[in-house]
Design goal:
One of its GO terms (biological process) is rRNA transcription. Pfam families: CarD_C, CarD_TRCF_RID. InterPro entries: CarD-like/TRCF_RID, CarD-like/TRCF_RID_sf, CarD-like_C, CarD-like_regulator, CarD_C. It comes from Sphingomonas lenta. This is CarD family transcriptional regulator. There is one protein chain. The protein has about 180 residues and is α+β, with helices and mostly antiparallel strands. The chain has 2 domains: about 55 residues, Thrombin, subunit H (Beta Barrel), CATH 2.40.10; about 100 residues, Methane Monooxygenase Hydroxylase, Chain G, domain 1 (Up-down Bundle), CATH 1.20.58. It is built from 5 helices and 5 strands; from the N terminus they run E-E-E-E-E-H-H-H-H-H. The chain has a 5-stranded antiparallel β-sheet with strand order 4-3-2-1-5. Strand 2 and strand 3 form a beta hairpin. Helix 3 crosses helix 4. The radius of gyration is 19 Å and the shape is elongated.
Length: about 180
């Protein structure tokens, strides 16, 4: 094998794009269809899910270590930015948002979180907007929590504080109707 597979150790936090932050709980060897496979066994506590990923496929499915501090700072800066409101059909925007969340890219997830955030004094969200916002915010909070060694609730509160502060700035810019 020419390319060096990503290497994760038992106890490491990893990001699996479709499921978010999980922890490597063991390395297994299994015989499947006559072939011997080495597997990472990942545990996702929030979903109460265990996932087995062949070590040689970890990179191709997008599994990665937690983001760098630089990427985390960039994601938190993204939250402070002005929300981008696209005027395309909701179904198309929803697909784009889902793709960004499932990409596993922290900055893209922060963009979705920022764009779908609604302050208390703003119009209500539709059910599906709220669902996507919560999925993005939760995904972002879990990685933030793992990196800052805190719990998801505190991380989510930090994210919402940043969003509320940004909303207060950008809502003042709008002229009163």
């Amino acid at each position: 094998m020419a390319s060096k597979a990503l290497s994760f150790d038992v106890g490491d936090y990893v990001v699996y794009p479709k499921h978010g932050v999980g922890r490597v709980i063991e390395l297994q060897k299994q015989e499947i269809a006559g072939a011997s496979l080495e597997l990472y066994v990942l545990r996702f506590e929030k979903e109460r899910m265990t996932l087995r990923v062949p070590t040689n496929k970890a990179e191709s499915v997008g599994m990665r270590k937690l983001s760098s501090d630089k990427t985390l700072r960039e994601a938190l800066e993204t939250l402070k930015g002005k929300p981008k409101v696209k005027r395309t059909m909701w179904s198309r925007r929803a697909q784009e948002y889902e793709a960004k969340i499932n990409s596993g890219d922290l900055v893209s997830i922060a963009e979705v979180t920022r764009d779908l955030f609604r302050a208390d004094d703003q119009p209500e969200q539709s059910y599906s907007e709220r669902q996507i916002f919560e999925a993005a915010c939760s995904r972002l909070a879990r990685e933030l929590a793992a990196m800052e060694e805190t719990d998801e609730k505190k991380a989510q509160e930090k994210i919402l504080d940043i969003l509320r502060a940004a909303a207060a700035i950008y809502n003042k810019e709008k002229p009163a109707a």
